[in-house]
Amino acid sequence: MSPVRDDAVPVDGHDAVAAAMRAVDRRGFLPRAQRASAAFDQPLPIGHGQTCSQPSTVAAMLRMLRVPRGAAVLDVGAGSGWTTALLAHLVGPEGEVLGVERIADIAAWGAANVARAGMPWARLVPAAPGVLGSPRPGGWSRVLVSASARSLPQELVDQVAPRGRMVIPVGHLMIVLDRDADGTVRTTQEGTYSFVPLVED
Q1: Which positions are catalytic?
Q2: What is the CATH number of the domain that holds 51?
Q3: How many helices and strands (H and E) does the chain possess?
């Protein structure tokens, strides 16, 4: 694999995702043994059979999500906390980011990584037993899911606010879901990707 370059995905000079990925160093969200590989465009193991997704995939998902400043964002399958910190950079201090991770050891490590990133409007917590995502009054304006669901989970669909958007892999398809102001839900497919499975039971 080649190292990631700023032009790995076509961007313009004002691309907020490219700026976030320059600002939030992936090395700080990897086990020590993997840090030398941080600049390479490949998934890297973080323990318990989980990975830190490859940067080009993360960048593509964040662009699909179209995160505005000040948004309230839910990061499902937050892992090491890298995507949580990237989302925090995108929303800025007027926003809110909550990462949830089902594996307790990874959640504790990811929470420490996010805290060290110095963006107190973002935090990472262990997933509540038997709960997918984190229900919030009024919903989340953006939901990022970094694990593959067997089918589109209604529990997460219900957490997307009116005028909100979710990006989620379903099987090997990347799905972008939009909820209109009247509650109508629309989905589009945006290519094929491989992810660890989302535990939904």
Answers
A1: 53
A2: 3.40.50.150
A3: 5, 9
For residue 3, tell me if it sits in a domain.
no
In a domain, 160, yes or no: yes
For residues 154-179, give the mean pLDDT: 96
Identify whether 186 is part of a domain: yes
Q: Cα 19 to the chain's mean position, in Å?
A: 16
DSSP 8-state code for residue 28: G
Polymer length of the chain: 201
- Fill in the amino acid letter for 119: M
Distance separating alpha carbons of residues 71 and 142, to the nearest angstrom? 7
**For residue 73, what are the β-bridge partners?**
97, 142
pLDDT at 12: 38
Q: Please state the rounded mean pLDDT for residues 39-55.
A: 93
Average pLDDT over residues 144-151: 92
